[in-house]
Amino acid sequence: MNQKNNTYLQLIKTISKTLQLFLNVCLVLLALILSFLLIIELIEFLKILIADDGGDYKLFLANILIFFLYFEFITMIIKYFKEDYHFPLRYFIYIGITAMIRLIIVEHDHPLNTLMYSLVILILIISYFIINITPLERPVRSSSLFMKKE
């Protein structure tokens, strides 16, 4: 019976490590794709700045916010690996706030929608404030896939 439990636990551990490795590879690929898109946004900035037609400031602001969305997603992936395979909640809040600001800049034709987007931003800011004032008592994660045990 004990042999069966050990075999079962080993199988579960192997499956867990395999899935974690798969997720890590996928996140690295996503980070590479986002980095490529970030470079494309930088090129778009240069095109808008060099163009002599005065440029559309709404397009420029929308591109800046898209740039920050890519940047925040890449930062979140980096933090995932640095914080032992954990996505900090505050990065999702940053991304949500940035996305809502972009939405307000791009689609501000309907006042009711703009008000709703602003309320979403307010809720996200309040959530961020609550996260910052709560104690940081979190369980310590002891297992890691690629870290050496000392």
Automatic annotation (TrEMBL):
Identification of the protein by name: Protein PsiE
Record Pfam families: PsiE
UniProt record similarity statement: Belongs to the PsiE family.
Bilayer topology annotation: Multi-pass membrane protein
Origin species: Lysinibacillus sphaericus OT4b.31
Superkingdom in the source lineage: Bacteria
TM stretches of this protein: 21-40, 60-81, 88-106, 112-131
CC per GO annotation: plasma membrane
Keyword Transmembrane: yes
Family matches, as InterPro entries: P_starv_induced_PsiE, P_starv_induced_PsiE-like
Chief place of localization: membrane
Alphabetically ordered keywords of this record: Cell membrane, Membrane, Transmembrane, Transmembrane helix
One GO BP: cellular response to phosphate starvation
Entry annotated with the keyword Transmembrane helix: yes
Protein's cellular compartments: Cell inner membrane
